[in-house]
Amino acid sequence: MRKYFHFEELGTSYRTEFTAGLTTFLAMAYILFVNPATLAEAGMDKDAVFVATAVAAAVGTLFMGIIAKYPVALAPGMGLNAFFAYTVVLGYGIPWQTALSGVLVSGLIFMVLTLTGLRERIINAIPANLKYAVGAGIGLFIAFIGLINSGIVVDNSATLVGIGDVTSPDVLLAIFGLVISVVLLTKGVKAGIFYGMIITAIVGMIFGLVPVPTSLNHIIGGIPSISPTFGQALFHFDEIFTLQMLVVILTFLFVDFFDTAGTLVAVATQAGLVKENKLPRAGRALFADSAATVSGAVFGTSTTTSYVESTAGVGVGGRTGFTAVVTAGFFLLALFFSPLLAIVTSAVTAPALIIVGVLMAGQLKNIEWDRFEIAVPAFFVLLMMPLTYSIATGIAIGFIFYPITMIVKGKAKEIHPVMYGLFIVFILYFVFL
């Protein structure tokens, strides 16, 4: 084992790798509760999604650790689960079973692109500024959902949105959770989001806002049935051959594509694994990610992707794939704690959504705002995601404006043919849908 993961070469040990794996798990354990709550909005069985989330995370992380040997963990992606539930299912009226088929197809396409080497060409076709805008825009969208779910932001007939009743006990609990999470993360606590949820749930129990577990069976229990979601993605392929589903699949693919690439570079750089500005075993890592999406869709969850929270484990010394193996083990162990879903209310999960939004918005600093031809499409990507309540619509509007501003600026030759193709696709998207 030590030889396979190159412990001596990378200057690490079992103890260090175990600690790193546990740290990474704690930093992203919130997804076990936030993802079921999000996909339940789409009509999916909450307990089954909990199992699918844990299993998809474990399988994907094992792939990454054993095949690519990277200390990177995977789980259903934040933002992509929101797109799945709020845009695809609730917005477009597409059944969640069909949406899962779309996730499966996007994973298969990603796998083919990785094996054929086309991945690099497509990544290079999308301007870096728009990649940053998409990431930050998804962060704003996630934070907006968190604010709505918590009741901090509500519907307002005069101004569309407005401040909620901040004297409401549930809203106050969510605000408390947000403050606690901010304090923990500001203090440098790696698993601040997860610990914030725990503290918020405990305070909610004290004040009667969250159900109190009265026995050990309310904390530890048997693994729930996954039958409500397992395999559903395989039975609805005949429903994905529409322009609307094409846009959905492209969005799944696009976001996972660049989210994974950015995460791998960030984690590998922090771990000192980048050699001569190149990412060793990048093909294996991307294959592991695509395989995780395929398996996750079969189990019954939205797109599985690499998590930037993996940097928490790297920060305490994780350097090899064994870190990921340990993290995967903890996700499997978590399967026995499904009864805790009952105490994770929207007031408990909302702060996590808002904080993740803050972290994702950090990509705004990389956008060239002083170039107007870049600022316009980037701004529309950012603005229209939360305002239209749709990640796909935000991407579409921004990608339509990009060729327009670049051509007017006299930079038509700098536009990759892929961007022209997307321009046409998104025009058709608005015309027909």
Automatic annotation (TrEMBL):
<protein>
    <submittedName>
        <fullName>Guanine permease</fullName>
    </submittedName>
</protein>
<feature type="transmembrane region" description="Helical">
    <location>
        <begin position="192"/>
        <end position="210"/>
    </location>
</feature>
<feature type="transmembrane region" description="Helical">
    <location>
        <begin position="245"/>
        <end position="274"/>
    </location>
</feature>
<feature type="transmembrane region" description="Helical">
    <location>
        <begin position="340"/>
        <end position="362"/>
    </location>
</feature>
<feature type="transmembrane region" description="Helical">
    <location>
        <begin position="374"/>
        <end position="402"/>
    </location>
</feature>
<feature type="transmembrane region" description="Helical">
    <location>
        <begin position="414"/>
        <end position="432"/>
    </location>
</feature>
<comment type="similarity">
    <text>Belongs to the nucleobase:cation symporter-2 (NCS2) (TC 2.A.40) family. Azg-like subfamily.</text>
</comment>
<feature type="transmembrane region" description="Helical">
    <location>
        <begin position="130"/>
        <end position="154"/>
    </location>
</feature>
<keyword id="KW-1003">Cell membrane</keyword>
<feature type="transmembrane region" description="Helical">
    <location>
        <begin position="314"/>
        <end position="333"/>
    </location>
</feature>
<dbReference type="GO" id="GO:0005886">
    <property type="term" value="C:plasma membrane"/>
</dbReference>
<dbReference type="InterPro" id="IPR045018">
    <property type="entry name" value="Azg-like"/>
</dbReference>
<keyword id="KW-0813">Transport</keyword>
<keyword id="KW-0812">Transmembrane</keyword>
<feature type="transmembrane region" description="Helical">
    <location>
        <begin position="100"/>
        <end position="118"/>
    </location>
</feature>
<keyword id="KW-1133">Transmembrane helix</keyword>
<feature type="transmembrane region" description="Helical">
    <location>
        <begin position="74"/>
        <end position="94"/>
    </location>
</feature>
<dbReference type="InterPro" id="IPR026033">
    <property type="entry name" value="Azg-like_bact_archaea"/>
</dbReference>
<feature type="transmembrane region" description="Helical">
    <location>
        <begin position="12"/>
        <end position="33"/>
    </location>
</feature>
<dbReference type="InterPro" id="IPR006043">
    <property type="entry name" value="NCS2"/>
</dbReference>
<feature type="transmembrane region" description="Helical">
    <location>
        <begin position="48"/>
        <end position="67"/>
    </location>
</feature>
<feature type="transmembrane region" description="Helical">
    <location>
        <begin position="166"/>
        <end position="185"/>
    </location>
</feature>
<keyword id="KW-0472">Membrane</keyword>
<dbReference type="Pfam" id="PF00860">
    <property type="entry name" value="Xan_ur_permease"/>
</dbReference>
<dbReference type="GO" id="GO:0005345">
    <property type="term" value="F:purine nucleobase transmembrane transporter activity"/>
</dbReference>
